[in-house]
Amino acid sequence: MFGKLDSPSVRNDYSGPAGLRTLSPGDEARSNIKENAIIGRSSAFRRVLSLVEIVAFGDSTVLLLGETGTGKELLARAVHNLSLRKNQPFVKVNCAAIPLDLLESELFGHERGAFTGAITQKMGRFELADHGTLFLDEIGDIPLTLQPKLLRVLQEREFERLGSTRTQKVDVRIVAATHRDLEGMILNGHFRSDLYYRLNVFPVVVPPLRERPEDVPLLVQYFVHAAARKLNKIIDSISVETMEALTRYEWPGNVRELENVVERAVILSKEPVLRIPNQALRSRIPCGHDHERPQALADVEREHIVATLKETGGRLSGPQGAASLLGVNRSTLYFRMKKLGINRYT
Q1: For position 121, what pLDDT does the model report?
Q2: For the chain, how big is the Rg over CA atoms in Å?
Q3: N or C end of the chain: smaller count of CB under 10 Å?
Q4: Residues 193 and 222 in one domain
Q5: Total structural domains in the chain?
Q6: How many Å apart are CA 265 and CA 227, to the nearest integer?
């Protein structure tokens, strides 16, 4: 086995910048990895944290570049928390998640009657972030028609709400992030070069998880503790085969994918030692050929549930039922079976 999971504690996992502390995987004081924990001791990740600490104390615009799921929002929060603005608002907006016709209002606000449905005055994210930090996630998805207004507020620190002629002044520090190739978008006419240069004051490239495999065991242990605590299960060790396979896998979905895989493994685990079936592990390990894709996680879960149902003859309840063997409630198992299209007697 890989050994016992670290006991709940906080410690430095690398001798990097003093202002940024990594966590031991079992830190009970940190309840939400997405908001609080920065885990990593690889040289690639340490370089990123060093840059974050250097730029945080100023007011320069920061552009975080990296694949989806690499933890760019965590780093944006670190920039804010290490800055002189740490006691002021940290406001985030996902530019890709808000419809085009609503994004301008979300960013800059609107007056009552500015458009159909504007029944009250509304403050935008820039106003809400005044004197603090505004995190513009997925900045590469902002519409071309809205980019000039964004450029103006970055340059002049002023704007007007929709439906108003009154100019608003704001003091906001901008941290932006994207997984897109902004320079390529400029060449294709999809992103303004002047806006890019205004954003690209201090770029930080966040490495994908496949480029820092030594961080995988730390992340796995942290996610195991978090999932076990949430699900009220006891997982005190991880098999060495499972850990080696998870470390070898290239994680196209990065840390977010790893978190999901670990949580589902904890859900399905029926003993204190976390294991993923060997067949499932092999199916997720890249074979070195681009045309061979890893097995989908839903398929892995489906196979595991089906195998357990065959073992119990389709029985869900009771001490030797599938729910008990999988370590989940009968209702939870039934929900997963329905979602995955599993017949208990197949």
Answers
A1: 72
A2: 24
A3: C
A4: no
A5: 2
A6: 9
- The reply to whether 320 and 215 lie within a common domain is yes
Which pLDDT tens digit goes with each residue over 47-98?
A: 999 999 999 999 999 999 999 999 999 999 999 999 999 999 999 999 988 8
Secondary structure string (H, E, C) spanning 110-137: ECCCCCCCCCCCECCHHHHCCCCEEEEE
d(CA 83, CA 223): 28
pLDDT at 149 over 90: yes
Most confident option among 249-258, 294-303, 325-334? 249-258
Q: pTM value?
A: 0.72
Same domain for 195 and 295, yes or no, is no
Question: What burial class does residue 209 get, using C-beta atoms within 10 Å of its C-beta: 0-12 exposed, 13-18 middle, 19+ buried?
Answer: buried
Q: Are residues 282 and 155 in the same domain?
A: no
What is the Cα–Cα distance from 121 to 132, expressed in whole angstroms? 22
Last-in-domain residue among 205, 234, 250: 205
Domain assignment of residue 90, given as a range: 43-205
Kindly give the pairing relationship between strand 133-137 and strand 90-94: parallel
Token pair 């685990």 is at which residue? 269
Task: Specify the CATH number for the domain of residue 191.
Answer: 3.40.50.300
Amino acid type, 165: T
Helices and strands in the chain: count of H runs, count of E runs: 14, 9
Cα–Cα distances (Å) from 194 to 61, 197, 201, in that order, read 14, 5, 12
